[in-house]
Description:
The chain is α+β, with helices and mostly antiparallel strands. It is 58% helix and 19% strand. The protein contains 12 helices and 9 strands. It has helices spanning 2-29, 53-63, 65-85, 176-179, 181-244, 251-285, 314-324, 326-347, 389-397, 416-484, 490-525, 528-531, and strands spanning 48-51, 91-104, 114-129, 135-147, 154-169, 298-301, 352-371, 381-385, 403-411. Strands 2, 3, 4, 5, 7, 8 and 9 form a 7-stranded antiparallel sheet that branches. Strand 3 (114-129) and strand 4 form a beta hairpin. The protein is elongated and about 155 Å long.
Amino acid sequence: MRRKISFLWFHICSALLIFSCLLSARTLQMEKMDKEKPAQTGDENEGFLELSLNDCIFRALKNNLGLAAEMLTPEIAARNVTLAMEKFMPAITFNYNKQDTRNASYSFLDASDVVITHQDDYTVQLAQQLPTGGSLSFSLYNYVNDSNRRFQTINPRYGSTLRITFSQPLLKDFGFRIGRREIIVAKYNRDISEENFQKQLEDLIYNVESIYWNLVYSRENLKVRQQSLKLAQELLEKNKIEIEAGILPPIERLTAEAEVSTRRADIIEAEALVKNYEDQLKTIMNLAAEYKDIKKIKIVPTDLPETGKKEISYEEALATALQKRPDLQAARIDLENRQFTLSYARNQLLPDLRLQFSYWSPGLSGDQILYKDNNALTGIIVGRIPGRKTDALRDAINFRFKNWSAAVVVTLPINSVFTRAYYAQAKLSLEQAQLRLKNQEQLLSLEISNAVRAVETNYQRAQAYRAARELAEKKLEAEQEKLKVGLSTNYLVLQYQRDLANAMTMELKALIDYNLSLANLDRVMGMGRERRNVRVIIGDD
C-alpha cells in the first residue's frame, strides 16, 4: 500500500513539472499582444515597472547621457557651416587717425622756426568677398590738414576721396567652388557628423534590444529554476516520510538533498543574472533621471520574443545595407570631401593671376588765402574766403573728378614646392579614402553573411530545442510509468526532471538568440531606426 502511495506521489510531482513546462512553452509561443501595455509609473510599495521594448528604446533615446552628448557633435558641425558662410557677409571698417607733427624749418618757404601740422584722417570702408574668389570694396576717405607753412593758397585744407576697388583672380583661387571652399568642407563635415550620429543611434537601439531580451531570458530562466527547486523540495519531503516508514533506504534522502542544494545554487546564479540585466537596462535608459531610488524598482518586460521565421536573402540584406548603413554613407561623403580637396590643391598649383580695377573721385576744399596782388610770394595775406568740409565731400560723391586704373598682377611664389606637397598629400588622402571604402564594403559583405546565417541558425536551433524539450517531456512521462511498476528509481526521475528544466532553458535561450540575431541583422543593414520608427532631427533644419 505504501509503495502505491509512493508511486502516486511521484506521479503528482512529475505531472506538476510537466504542466509547468507546457505552460512556459505555451507562453513563449504566444503571439504578441495587439496593443502594448502602457508603461506604468511604478508602485511606491512594490516598485514594479512594466516596460515594452519600445518603451525602453524611447527612454534610452530621451535620457541616455552618452547619446545626448554625441547629439551635440552634429550641432557643432552645423554651427561651423554658419561660421564659414560668414565669410561672405559684408565687413564694415571704421578708421580714425589724429596726428600732430612739429619739425624744424629748413627752408624760407616753411615757417620761420618750427613747421607745425595738424591732421585728422578718418575712413569708412565696406568690403565684400565674392563667391568667384574676388573681392569688392567701397571706401570713403576724409582728412583735415592745418599747417603753419608759408605761401599756402588753401589752409586749413579739407579732402575727401570716394573709391571703388575690384579684384578678381583668374587662375589660382578662381571659381565658385574654390571661392566657397570653407563652406563646402564645413557642409561635408556636418553631413559626416550626422551620419556618425545615426550610426550611434543604430548601436544604441541594438544595445537596448540586446539587454531587454537577455532580461526576458534571465527572468524566464529564474522561473524555471524556481519551479525545479519546488519539485525537488517536494520530493525530498516525500522521501523523508518514506524513509521514516522504512519504505526507502536512507541513501535516497541524500540524493534528494544534494539535488535541492544544486537547484538552489542554480537559483542564486539566475537571480544574479536578472539583477545584472536590470541594472544594465536602468543605466542605458538613465532611469535615475525619472526616479529617485532606482534600486527599489524592478523592471518587468511585457514583450514576448518573436517566434515566426523571417526570410531574408543575403543579396537583399547586402543591397539594403549598402543603401542604409550610416557608416558607409559617412565614408562616401568623406570620399567626396577628399575629391574636392584634391581639386582645390590642383587649383593652388596655378599661378596667381589677378585682375584689379579701381575707380575713385577726389574732392578738395578749405579756406582760400588771398595774397597781395594775388602773389603768394609776397607773403602778405590780405583776406580769406572760408571753405566748408561738405564741399569736398560733395565733389567726391558726385564724381566731379573721375579717375580709374586697371592692372593685371601675376605672382609666382617661390614656395610653390610646399603647394605641390599639399597636392601630393591630398592625392594620397583620396587614395586612402578609396581603399578604406572598398575595405569597408568587403567587411560589410562578411558581416551581412554572418548576420543572415545567424538568423537562420538560431531559428533552426530554436526549433531543434523545442523538439528536444518535447522529447524530454515524453522521457519524463515514460520514466514515471516505469517508476510505477518498480522499474526505475528516484534518482532517475530527478535526473529527467533536471533534463527537462535544462531543455526548457536551452529552448528559451535559442529563442532569445534568434531575436537578438534579428536585431543584429537590422543593425548591420542600418534598418534599426526605420523598424523602430526612430527619427531624430538635428539642429534647426
